[in-house]
Amino acid sequence: MLPLTLTIQGGVDKDGTPDAVNEIEIARGEIIGIVGPTGSGKSTLIADIEQFAYADTPSGRRILINGLVPDQELRSDPRKKLVAQLSQNMHFLADMQVGEFLRMHAKSRGKDPGLAEKVIELANTLTGEPIDPHHQLTILSGGQSRALMAADIAVISDSPIVLIDEIENAGIKKQEALRLLSGEGKIVVVVTHDPMLALMASRRVVMKNGGMTRILSTSEEEHRIFKDIERVDGWLTSLRETIRQGEVVA
Amino acid sequence: MKMVVVAGTPGSGKTSVLMYAVRDLLRMGLAPALVKIDCMWTEDDNRFRRLEVPVAVGLSRDMCPDHYAIYNFEEMLQWAEKQGASILLNETAGLCLRCAPYPDKAMAVCVIDVTTGPNSPLKVGPLLTTADVVVMTKGDLVSQAEREVFRERILEANPGCRIIEANGLSGKGSSELAELMRSWPDISGEMVLRHNPPLAICTLCTGELRVSKEHHRGVLRHLDGFMEYTGE
Questions:
Q1: Residue A74, SS3 per DSSP
Q2: Do B142 and A89 count as a contact with CB atoms less than 8 A apart?
Q3: I need a surface site. Which of A75, A216, B84, B191 has the fewest CB within 10 A?
Q4: In chain A, which ranges are continuous DSSP H helix?
């Protein structure tokens, strides 16, 4: 596996004040969180990374790969793309059948169109009612759509940098989805309000008014708290599943 | 003088993308002038005027909007020159999707909205197939996979084009677009359209209102694809 580092160089917040965080370097295998109130610029930061901003977005930030400005084709050609992104979108707008769409997407990434079946199979492990290749994309529920988007990233857009925007609102199994997306030795940047996901990250960037204000490293104490949250979350998940299946909570 | 023709379907974000590109051009030290062509009504000129650059509006009214734009290119260029402009930006409606209002020496930009679905690049016709640059807008409203499928469809329709993913709200992509405009060669000599217009004049052009087949003349195409010439 080739070494890979992602560097975010600070820009400015919504008022033009420089980011307090000057530079962040992220290496393979690291999960990094982005936290902050709604409207604080988390999705904008993700967008900067997705398009390899080079002081050409409103934030003025720069993104470097292995310390260098990436080539133009790395920014745009899906066959060479280093970034896979799960955005906040809950629905597909493309008026196509699931199977046809996935085959087309595999083609755009220079992959085997036969991967479409694998994507659907994987998506069905994350969601409730199964998705069929002949379904229209537009009729899928929010949860089914997100499950399909996540599985698509894991199988077709298998890129070394993964950007995830609020997977906890997706109505899918968030921890399984995150594990699936992180894969082996990837750089994962996850926007989250969820305490468990935030503490799964080794560091988290705190956003305010569009700017990067500080970086927190997950402390020993937070690691301990994470274990507690994991237990509570497991319990809540099983309760949710019981309710979903129409059974009685004992 | 450089010339850029920006066309695209209504609501695709032409004006918003151009607003950002104009700011970038000004920062680069160029002097842009804008001509907005529409059919019946527009107030985009008020938006452009806020940028404090010369703005003119042309409404085609009873004339075919593409023909109107093409017929008036010389006048637009003369006007832009009088304004001391170094680059003329022409935003046009591009309506029937059969013509493309692109002269060969101008930079041709087609703006297309990703939310219209992956079949739209195939429907837009010469507006897209003869463009130098295709600007994809509203990408933030769809998944990355949809953006990539859309991109693939654009390349199927126009393999040689440069694609820019832009956002009319945040300004994403505008500096890339402005940089292409800056480096585009100046126009010179006679210009020729990139794509042929539809066949001849039809009876509707001359004011026929009656629907029935017997009242129509010219090169006519039937629902089953059969084409014939009816007339003298």
A1: helix
A2: yes
A3: B84
A4: 42-50, 72-76, 98-108, 115-126, 142-155, 174-182, 195-200, 220-244
| Inter-residue contact A159 to A70 (CB < 8 Å) | no
Considering the domain architecture, whether residues A237 and A247 belong to the same structural domain is answered as: yes
Same domain, A77 and A197: yes
Smallest CA–CA distance from A88 into chain B, residue: B143
ipTM for the complex? 0.84
As a whole number of angstroms, the distance between CA A63 and CA A24 comes to 10
**Which residue in the set B115, B152, B176 is minimally distant from A104, CB to CB?**
B152
- pTM value surpassing 0.90: no
pLDDT tens by residue, A118-152: 999 999 988 878 999 999 999 999 889 988 998 99
Query: Considering only CB atoms, which chain A residues are within 8 Å of B25?
Result: none
For residue B114, list chain A residues with Cβ-Cβ distance below 8 A: 93
- pLDDT above 90 (res B7): yes
Q: Which token pair is A19?
A: 């980011």
The boundaries of the domain holding residue A95 are 90-158
Asked if A68 and A122 count as a contact pair (C-beta separation under 8 A), the reply is: no
CATH of the domain at A2: 3.40.50.300
pLDDT digits (tens, 9 = 90+) for B123-155: 888 999 999 999 999 998 898 999 999 999 999
A104 lies within 8 A of chain B by CB: yes
Identify the residue whose tokens are 């690291």.
A30
Q: Say what the pLDDT of residue B184 is.
A: 97
The CATH architecture to which B2-183 belongs is 3-Layer(aba) Sandwich (3.40)
* Eight-state DSSP code of residue A169: G
Residues A75 and A163 occupy one common structural domain: yes
